[in-house]
Amino acid sequence: MIQMTLESTVEQRQAERFCQEILPQVSRTFALSIRFLPGHLGRSVLVAYLICRIADTIEDDPIASVARKTLLLDQFLACFDSADAANSYPKLVQDVTGEPAHIQLVRHTHFVFAMFRSLPARSQERVQHWVSDMVRGMQKFVTLHPQGLRIQTLDEYKEYCYYVAGTVGYLLTDLWYEHSPNVGLEEYQVLRQRCGAFGEALQTVNILKDIAWDAEHENSIYVPQRTLQEHGSSHQAILSPDHLQQNHQAIAGLIELAWSDLDEALAYLVSIPKPAVPIRLFCILPLLFAYATLRDLTQSTAMLQPGGNVKISRAEVKSLMLIGPFSVLSNHSVRWLVTQVRLKPFILGSKPVGLVVPE
User: Fold this and answer.
1) Which of 56, 188, 238, 296 is the most buried (most CB within 10 A)?
2) CATH at residue 198
3) Are residues 99 and 188 in the same domain?
4) What is residue 134's three-state secondary structure?
5) Statement: residue 7 has pLDDT above 60
6) Are 233 and 291 contained in the same domain?
């Protein structure tokens, strides 16, 4: 019995060390944000993010067949209920392809689920519920588009974004309610009205900035075919120099949708009770980075050219990392900072940007 307990303790330590070390390799933004969350809340969000990333890597495999992806996702869901299934899962995914860090994560699925099993029971239930919803949606879209994801209509685009990102907004909000004494039932009900938009806003910005990457490396095109056709283009011509103007006009509607969702995400953030500082800290940086990226997307066509993408400058990233956390104590300051970022790159030291005055 003592030997089994020691082995379990060693496994938990290995699992937690792996999860902490792999996180910044698969998402720098969330690695920055998760560090603000304490205790069981931080652990729950870390595990939830890595589990979602594993599912996403399987869905995005540009080589695997529909049958193979569907099977792997079914077996992935089985890991929630069976430690044996989780421990054997790495043997099943040796042929999954993708970015090296993501493949390393997938091949250590057993570590992620070992950490999952150390979470409070209610947290496990919430993670399993929302990830299962996400994975069933992924399977639906993989089946609908067996030759590679090709979104056809705006409604289909919105449905896809709900499954892969809106579910994350609901999951996070459920975890806030469970773990934060500052998020009571009344606050929770307010946040639930906008939590889907919080996740979907970040997803739409990522889709827009990665149009070329997704088409070239993951065989996925998310800009609706019907919208492209209305502007004289198509999925086949999404990166064509001869259709650059038409494609840019076609994504204007998605850019407007992203602005609208980001404003809903901002309303979500300022609805989080001010004493829940760690949660507000978690939300602020992804939101600021998304606003800055969308600002640049509106003025660029780089994401519609082979090999192109849109990234905000390192100087702005550093500036937002410095000033963003100081703004979260005041809704006035948060809104002021967002307004500045929407207008132009926010770089400390370039010239005076004014004072952020708390309410």
Assistant:
1) 238
2) 1.10.600.10
3) no
4) helix
5) no
6) yes
Least confident of 69-78, 101-110, 326-335, 343-352: 343-352
235-275 pLDDT tens trace: 999 999 999 999 999 999 999 999 999 999 999 999 999 99
Instruction: For residues 1 and 114, state if they share a domain.
Output: yes
Q: Are residues 116 and 206 in the same domain?
A: no
For the chain, the domain total comes to 2
Residues 28-32 have a mean pLDDT of 84
Residue 139 inside a domain? The answer is no
Residue 133 in domain: no
Is the distance from CB of 137 to CB of 160 less than 8 angstroms?
yes
Shared domain check, 194 and 77: no
Is the model's pLDDT at 358 over the cut of 50? no
- Its pTM stands at 0.92
| Amino acid 352: pLDDT | 43
Token pair for 342: 């929407």
Query: Are the C-beta atoms of residues 18 and 44 closer than 8 Å to each other?
Result: no
Residue 289's closest CA among 336, 240, 346, 232? 346
Measured distance CA(108)–CA(113) in Å, rounded = 9
Domain that holds residue 323: 149-359
Whether residue 95 is found in the same domain as residue 172: no
52 in helix, strand or coil?
A: helix
Helix (H) or strand (E) holding 175: helix 167-179
Cα gap 18→55, rounded to integer Å: 18
| Each residue's pLDDT tens digit, 66-119 | 999 999 999 999 999 999 999 999 999 999 998 999 999 999 999 999 999 999
Specify whether the CB–CB gap between 280 and 269 falls below 8 A: yes
Residue pair 160/134 in contact (Cβ under 8 Å)? The answer is no
On whether both 115 and 160 belong to a single domain, the answer is no
Q: Which structure tokens are listed for 81?
A: 């209920």
At 357, the pLDDT band (50, 70, 90 cuts) reads very low
In a domain, 29, yes or no: yes
Q: How many CA atoms lie within 13 A of 282 on its CB side?
A: 21
- 137: in domain: no
Q: Please report the pLDDT score of residue 237 as a whole number.
A: 97
Q: Which residues of 155-180 are buried (b: 16+ CB within 10 A; e: fewer)?
A: ebbbebbbbbbbbbbbbbbbbbbbbb
